[in-house]
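Attaching the record inline, Q. Sequence:
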Amino acid sequence: MKRVEAIVRVERLPIVKEHLREIGIGGMTITSVSGWSKQRELHLQWRGLPVSYDLIPRSKFEIIIPDDQLDLVLKTITENARTGEHGDGLISVSNVEEAINIATLDRGERAIK
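Structure, as predicted:
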């Protein structure tokens, strides 16, 4: 099993989430996060005055999937989160040793289906 964590633009999250649902992803955990990358600051204007933000709001979601779904999930996220501009986000993938569904006590891949 794999844990996929993705940090994406807030406005892209509903699009990514819907496409993941369409390919059969049954659940995910979503959190609101903020941070910066190479860009460091976002320069905007507010009431005609320049404003710099060094922490940019983003959405982070985590899903645990069977190994055989990894390529499809990564393709779905990148195709739907990408705008082609700096700050589109980051995806990380790690191994999951065990998963247990607390309600049913199912273990392994049965716990995540």
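The first helix runs from residue 13 to 22. The two ends are 12 Å apart (CA to CA).

More tomorrow.
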